[in-house]
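Q: Could you write out the predicted structure for this multi-component system? I'm mainly interested in how the pieces pack against one another.
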Amino acid sequence: MGWFKKTTKDSLEEKKVKIPEGLWVKCPSCKEIIYRKEFDKNLKVCPKCNYHFRIGANERIHLTVDGGSFIELCPGLSPVDPLEFEDTMSYEERITSNQEKTRLKDAMSIGIATINKLPVVIAVMDFSFMGGSMGSVVGEKVVRAVEASFETNYPLIIFTSSGGARMQEGIFSLMQMAKVSAAIGRLKEIAVAYISVLTDPTFGGVSASFAMLGDIIIAEPKSLIGFAGARVIQQTIKQQLPEDFQQAEFLLKKGLIDMVVHRREMKMRISNILKMFGFCPLKK
Amino acid sequence: MRNYIDFEKPIEEIERKIDELKQLKGYGDKKVIEEIEVLEKEAKERSRQIIENLTPWQQCLLARHPDRPYTLDYIKAITEEFIELHGDRRFSDDPAIVGGLCRIDGIPAMLIGHQKGRGTKERIQRNFGQPHPEGYRKALRIMKLAERFHIPIVTLIDTPGAFPGVGSEERGQSEAIATNLMEMSLLKTPIVSIVIGEGGSGGALALTVADRLFMLQYSIYSVISPEGCAAILLKNDKPLTQEDFAKAANSLKLTAQHLQNYGITDDIIEEPQGGAHRNVEETARNIKRFILSSFEELHGIDPFVLVEKRYKKLRAIGVFLE
């Protein structure tokens, strides 16, 4: 059957359209080729199928807060290797290479900013740093953001994007789930709103802690959100999964989130909610 | 009949011999009795040797030993009275978590734990100790009940993890776990948690936000199973081997001793020679001692102070540079 295989491979290669670097972007969802300028103007959302591309923390902050209003908190927090974890690469090397690649210290940035003039504490995860996994730094930053909200009475907005707990920090990562949830618990006793915005993907230790504890939970369209990954579930139950399984719209239908909001409308939606809760612009 | 796992095979041989001798017609003979005594000594010595040199992976296997005592075994051995409570009042009753009112040395308490089930039929019925959201919600419901009546809470932890399935996702596994973590941190009544076997990730943590956390000597507590860890790290197509799991178990630092060194646990509860399954009564006595001394320490503390202390302990966990 050797010849048969070969033809298939050849025909596949022929079909592949060569895309010049940078000018065009291919949508991983519908395979549409998008002109980059149009793509950027559309906030990295596919104009054809509405797929929301993953975006980094800095870009997300830029899209969400008023220009120039972001003041980063604890930018220096940086991970260490408490377990001396070894896999194919030492954890220390992994940290260094991810820091060089992303120019971030870890998978979360927090700060104070305004959204349509409303002051907020904002925390944003970055999936490109070790899959947005939560170790001690992410856990600590969530708690510091909560504490900043507690002190200032500014509402807390967290954008999640994470594969789950960071296994390289073992039990310390697991314990961050309890730590951040306990911190949020204290916020629930005062009238400071916590809006959790779930973006693609939000799983495991992040979804089973602060992501699902928002007073209001918003998700971007088609984001995958869940506790266990689809592959693990399929291996466990050995059945076909529903087509829209773990998509934002599926969660909405099941009553697990409040709304699905397009990236373009996110900023306005957040500020509208906050205004109804009585949060006001700062007086000069 | 006893079950033996791989590294217990040397003990199995000796104990088979002992059993055979006991079946002999001449059992009453002095010689036979003497021989049995020699063999029993040998079995003890062997099990001591085995247990002293356990690798982290072997400790995982011991923590999952099919004869290892489960929550209901301890309830039987520790409590004078147990009244089981059922259901989350929303969807169903999850048999993977049991809980109810009990008396320990006369003291009323709310005891909750994962339950794995013994034998194929019960294992399936209890979903191998892997809870669905309704299990966590039941646990929270009865913990809040305990809070209202100032009854201390004891949780026994033994699960491979929260169940990964369609139903559990549809009903909000993440939300159920997250809510337990948050609510337990606020409960104004003492909470004592003991890892008795497998502390499997978020599914274990969701019952483990406590004022006192203990682990049985050969139990484990980890962010991910060694199998899951190996599967993620070694993304090749080759089937994973015991060696891969052993490597992952080494890296994860998941034994009771590691967690004690990291200051995550308050103490380690000693197990009998050869592990908890070799002497359930002795293990239960040790557990009971720790529960009662914790009750004594935590009794009478102002509930607000108690919650504050519980939070401070959690707040301090984490290692990073600033």
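A: Regarding packing and overall arrangement: Chain A touches chain B through 63 residues (CB under 8 Å).
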